[in-house]
Amino acid sequence: MIAFIWIVAALLLALWSLGAWGLHTLLLADAGWVGDLSELIDRVPYADVIDRWFPGWQGLMHALLDLAQSTLGLLGTAAPLIVWSAWAVGALGLALVGGFLTLVVVLLRRDERRRAAA
Q: What is the C-alpha R_g of the chain?
């Protein structure tokens, strides 16, 4: 059981690290790439079908792209520090959860052994 806990924790840490690396790579790029996505929104297939279910979605997507571009511009050079700080907090959280679950398993096994001995 303990091995399972730490295998899952290691896999989650690997996914967390991959996500942080990908976000770090995106944030290091120039924020101008977000503006290029505007053309893609205008060429979405079946846009009329989407518009029937969610009217005004293209305007919302353009507004979100503008927000993303301005946010990326504001973050600037601080983005890598923010990403890796968040990664460290998440990695520490995963390690603490793994340690806590290991402690729970050890204590439950100890209690089970006491019951079996009595």
A: 23
Tokens representing 88? 């460290």
Q: How many whole angstroms separate alpha carbon 78 and alpha carbon 92? A: 21
pLDDT tens digits, one per residue of 29-54: 776 677 778 888 888 888 888 889 98
Structure tokens that stand for 72 in this block: 């990326």
Q: Are 94 and 13 in contact (CB under 8 A)?
A: yes
Q: Where are the alpha helices (DSSP H) in 43-78?
A: 47-53, 57-75
Alpha-carbon span 25 to 29, nearest angstrom:
7
Q: Supply 77's token pair.
A: 């050079």
Q: Is the backbone of residue 14 left (phi > 0), alpha (psi -120 to 50) or beta? A: alpha
Q: What is the pLDDT of residue 31?
A: 67
Reported as a single tens digit per residue, the pLDDT across 52-111 is: 998 998 899 999 988 888 887 787 778 889 999 999 999 999 999 999 999 999 999 998
